Amino acid sequence: MSTALDRERRRHRRSRLSLGQRELIWAYVFLAVPLVFFLGIRIWPALQSFQLSLFTWHVDPAQREYIGFDYYRELLSESRFHRALLNTLLYTVIIVPVQLALGLAIALLLQSVDRFRPFFRAVYFSPYMTPAAAVAWVWGWMYSVNFGIINTFLIEWSIFWENLGLPWLAIPPQPFLTDPSQALPSVAAVVIWQHLGFQVVIFLAGLQGIPRTFYEAARIDGAGAWALFRHITLPLLNPVMVFSIVISSIASLQLFDQVVNINFTNQGGPLDSTLTIALYMYQEAFGRFRMGYAAAVTVVLFLLILVVTVVQLRLASRKVEY
Amino acid sequence: MAAPTLRSSRSAAASGSRTRTPRVGTILSYALLLLGSVIMFFPFLWMILSSFKELREIFQLTLFPTSWSLDNYREVLTGTEFPRWFLNSLIVAGLTTLSVLFFCALVGYTLTRLRFPGRNAIFLLILSTLMIPTEMLVIPWFVMSSQFGWVNSYWGLLFPGLIPAFGVFLMRQFFTTLPRDLFDAGRVDGVSEFGLFWRIGLPLVRPGLAALGIFTFIGNWNAFLWPLIIARSPDMRTVPVGMAFFSNEAGTAWHLIMAASALAIVPILLVFFIFQRQIIEGVVLTGTKG
């Protein structure tokens, strides 16, 4: 009797032990390929980029020479890099707030209507899913100085108001992408147009997550529409807002597809006015094959993204107080 | 009249004059939304209408073509390598999506349902790769691809996207919501560890798989930087990369570009209309759980 019980207990203990071991073995069997992938395709190359930036470039690793931070010093004195850095920050400063404001405004409008919501949502979201190359071609043509639809419209618009005797409402045709001072905002407008739908959907979800009872209670206390927005909507939307800001900042700092495609024969032009860090990196690495130097550029980009994200998350976490 | 307005979130909260005051505001909302829709949709409309115009009409800047012609489409499909790019994009985006769904779900499952030492460390390691911008990886990837002979191949096009960290994160979120008892019950019934994942886990996270799959497909269909680098010959280009070179090869043939652009969004539109609900849910998940 007791031996049978012992055997039972022993088997139970052994099977539990082997269960834990089995889970361990299976876990690592399941994770083997993904772990190799993350270490070999993500983490190791990231470290390699840093390493490449400290050596002169040669296809044969044995012939690469250690030069320390020379490429970084070169970056500091390279005016095209300054231009790219400044442009990238300009894009971010234009795109992020405009996208945030428009995204929130459209989401609030959408929430205030109860018919056709899926239709509107689909229309606003569709540019987000379109390849940047197609988007850039169409916009590049619409922006065209002589046969672009926007300037054609501006001319018609001006004639209309001048005929009515109101010439100050006329807007002359614009150079858009051909003018160094207008090219960057023109590209930024395309990016805003393309990514707006994503922000709208995020904000709409955030708004729907706010319990209606909050508004009802505040209304009973006599709060007006602005007070409701200021004291209920905005604070409760804060986490969504932080997410939206961080995501659009990271995307803006990595701007490449639209910039390359909208002016494919003069990438980053005119006069480097639309050049971004990502495009500068691409040109140095795959146009001039200065891999080490380009790697240094990517390290700077990485640090920039890291700093911007950390600062934003810091500021956001301080602001949250309910 | 009162019943439908009561249902809307705004008027339900409004006190007094329920039937009249929301009207002006509602009409204004619809008007603004419609104006926004026109601005959002105009470039598509322009592209699609232009794609049906004959070459001589393309710069006349009238909205509608006087005679609708399919010549541009015929020329894109027979006179350029567009069909090949389209096929390349389908292959790359399709295979990547299959890999992402399988591996991200498997890792998500393993990180939530199995207990083993190093579990949190592995999750943090995977999460940390979210901070690395693609730009930082493309140079080492290209060097590596040159050494291994992956340049200008399908494998070269798709290897970087096989297991995205974001997908792992998303699937892990889905698996945490499943009760552990379910898997213990399966285990008692003698289901193998892989069977627990495949037969019990996967069917329960189908909404997550749908969202992740759609986003992966769209993201890879639209991918530009890496395919631009790794596709060295025209026949290995994907749709976005092939289109980028349109001006060089056809001397900026706007009529062909508009037709190609319209064709480039066809698979995306199909995916969108079939899975609209899952797409919206997917965005919502990234925003609220992220």
Structure report:
The complex is a heterodimer of chains A (322) and B (290). With 322 residues, chain A is an all-alpha fold. Chain A is built from twelve helices and no strands. Chain A has helices spanning 2-52, 70-77, 79-112, 117-125, 132-143, 149-163, 180-208, 212-220, 225-253, 257-262, 277-287, 291-319. The model of chain A has no long low-confidence stretch (mean pLDDT 88). Chain B has 290 residues and is mainly alpha-helical. Helix content of chain B is 74%, strand content 0%. Chain B is built from 18 helices and no strands. Chain B is globular, with a radius of gyration of 25 Å. The interface between A and B is large, with 99 and 100 residues.
Which features would summarize this protein structure in a list?
heterodimer; A: 322 residues; mainly alpha; B: mainly alpha; 18 helices; 0% strand; globular; disordered N terminus
Q: Radius of gyration of chain B in whole Å, from Cα?
A: 25 Å
Sheet-strand content of chain A, in percent, reads under 5%
Oligomer kind: heterodimer
Q: How does the helix and strand content of chain B classify structurally? A: mainly alpha
Shape of chain A: flat
Distance between the termini of chain A: 65 Å
The residue-averaged pLDDT of chain B reads 84
**Compute the gyration radius of chain A: what is it?**
28 Å
What percentage of residues of chain A falls in helices of 4 or more residues?
A: over 70%
Q: Please report the distance between the alpha carbons of the first and last residues of chain B.
A: 41 Å
| Chain pair sharing the greatest interface | A-B, 99 and 100 residues
What is the 3D form of chain B?
globular
Strand content of chain B: under 5%
Number-wise, the strands of chain A total: 0
Structural class of chain A: mainly alpha
